[in-house]
Automatic annotation (TrEMBL):
A single cellular component GO annotation: plasma membrane
Coiled-coil region(s): none
Record key words, sorted: Membrane, Transmembrane, Transmembrane helix
Signal peptide: none
Residue intervals of the Major facilitator superfamily (MFS) profile domain: 1-234
Location of the protein in the cell: Membrane
TM stretches of this protein: 6-27, 39-60, 66-85, 129-151, 214-233
Source domain of life: Eukaryota
Mode of membrane association: Multi-pass membrane protein
Biological processes per GO annotation: D-glucose import; dehydroascorbic acid transport
Name of the coding gene: Slc2a5_0
Name this polypeptide is given: GTR5 protein
InterPro entries (UniProt xref): GLUT, MFS_dom, MFS_sugar_transport-like, MFS_trans_sf, Sugar_transporter_CS
A molecular function (GO) term: D-glucose transmembrane transporter activity
Species whose genome carries this gene: Oceanites oceanicus (Wilson's storm petrel)
Length: 234
């Protein structure tokens, strides 16, 4: 029935956001416990599995596989957004940190544009090729899965969470060269001592905290207006 088709279509579209909410909510716990590099590697595996499920949905004649794959993609994207920004920022030298973080927004936008273009009926959006389009999200995850093991764990994580000063120095030398990096290590130690005296707020505590009320309002308004600026229509 047409109403059932509309309902299934709506669920298929929106379930990505539900997965994204769950993924981003669990990102802090996972990064503290396992580290950013390990989380990114496991996240890539999750995305590849999700892409495979969606890519095989037409052969299996199962729309449920699309729902499951979209949900898993949402979880992966929700995990990846904060993980990627934190990892890139922490492994970048101080003079390139701002530039490295700004590239994330550029590639997010570029990825959306490539997806929109690839989804045209003349390309991968045709009746026969749409499974390839849905499975294409696994390609960048596969590339990262191949190359990320050659990168070290985040130096701040090694020093602040693991207490591994030698491992931190080794990671810094691998990332930034053999120069003297004691100043950067001292900065990480200062941050560690500051965090010991800082209470980490939960989402509910943050919403109740009066001191951060206006900052929270500003973030919510900015995020909401981005959705209304026409970017989705473009």
């Amino acid at each position: 029935h047409q109403d059932n088709l509309l309902f299934l279509w709506s669920i298929t579209v929106s379930i990505f956001g539900i997965g994204g909410l769950l993924g981003s909510s669990g990102s802090r716990y996972l990064t503290v416990k396992y580290g950013k590099k390990k989380c990114l590697l496991c996240n890539n595996l999750l995305m590849i599995v999700a892409a495979s499920i969606m890519g095989c949905s037409k052969i299996a004649q199962s729309f449920e596989m699309i729902l499951i794959g979209r949900f898993m993609c949402g979880i992966s994207a929700g995990l990846c957004a904060p993980l990627h920004l934190q990892y890139v920022g922490e492994i970048s030298p101080r003079k390139l940190r701002g530039f490295a973080n700004s590239t994330s927004s550029f590639f997010w936008s570029l990825g959306k544009a490539v997806g929109q273009i690839s989804g045209q009926r003349e390309l991968l959006g045709s009746q026969s090729l749409w499974p390839m389009l849905m499975a294409s999200c696994g390609l960048p995850a596969l590339v990262q899965l191949v190359f990320l093991p050659f990168f070290p764990e985040s130096p701040p994580y090694l020093l602040m969470r693991k207490g591994d000063q030698e491992g931190c120095k080794k990671a810094i030398r691998q990332l930034w060269g053999e120069d003297h990096h004691q100043a950067e290590i001292d900065d990480i130690m200062k941050e560690k001592s500051t965090m010991k005296n800082t209470k980490i707020l939960s989402v509910l505590e943050l919403m109740k905290e009066q001191a951060f009320r206006w900052q929270l309002y500003m973030i919510v308004i900015l995020t909401a207006t981005v959705q209304l600026c026409g970017i989705n229509a473009v």
